[in-house]
Amino acid sequence: MVQVLSGIAYDCDVLVIGGGIVGLSTAYAITRGAPGTRVVVLEKEAGPARHQTGRNSGVIHSGIYYRPGSLKARYAVRGAAEMVKFCAEYGIAHAVTGKLIVATERDELPRLHGLVQRGRENGIPVRELGAAQIAEYEPEVEGLAAIHVGTTGVCDFVGVARQLAEASGAEIRYGAEVRRIDRRPELGVAVRTAAGDVVRARVLVNCAGLHCDEVARLTGDDPGMRIVPFRGEYYSLARPELVRGLVYPVPDPAFPFLGVHLTRGIDGGVHIGPNAVPALAREGYDWATVRPRELGATLAWPGSWQIARRHWRYGTGELRRSVSRRAFTTAVRRLLPAVTPDDLVPSAAGVRAQAVLRDGTLVDDFLIREGPRTVHVLNAPSPAATASLPIGREVARRALEALRSA
Asked: How far apart are CA 217 and CA 62, in angstroms?
């Protein structure tokens, strides 16, 4: 049914661009929060969760890493508990395994202690371990000290996205790539897809992930940032018996990346990774995928050059691990000495949609901004899958407010 208001034929009340876990959680939250609201989701791929959602390590993050009071901290802690409950309710594969964060160098010990303090501020139970106690959890892992975080787990995030799509009652249109947006504050938003279809809505929600800044500009809004894509490369462990659960290094606080870690997934296999190297396309899952227009836009953004200037040493190490399995193995052996290059089997890569400001600042929190009749989700990388239910509710709240005032 097409709703007609003030002479305009609206196909829906809220149009969501992006069928990843955040977009689908938003649709779910809108229809739960305001029954009867008509929602359409446009997703350019043939199914849901084909990019960030479906190409991560499947970890339900505890929230221990994130600055107290930040959206990441609040939504990850809340979202982890809600995600476990959601998976249990709908029979989606999951497990609460706990994880170790292991210090392997003396200069990491103060940072490890800082994580203990941060965890406690965020309301997360943390157990401190000496070197000898690490073996209680992971007999093959070595380190100077560690902490055990019991609320970390793993799940099938693609299964979660599918369930959100079904339970939302929204109309999901796959194969619908957005090409043009005509937003008129006094009327609404009209979106044209690559196939030539036009969808008219009263409010637009931009959950386009790797392309969210481009979609924002199509509406006429300046997002004030650019997505700079970083590819994360993974290996599978040929001897999964070496790892019982989840094992992480102590992260570098200067970066939003968590470092190469070990993750036993719901299928019993162990993933190792990711590193973080510049991708040559927004969906550049290997070095062979190059899109000159997208690469040119990344290189034209001043923030990209600021990142390179400030962090070239870090980036050089990441590139070395990308092109050399032996170098990647050396990084893994800091945590798992028994691993050899032959244990690493190449696996599917992912691309992180990282928002970067003009001055080179890596946006370290979720970023949600609003325009006339529009809500933009402009930075939602990890732990967005963990936090997707609270994020969806917040975006839905803003969209429904826009709908009421339209």
From this structure: 34
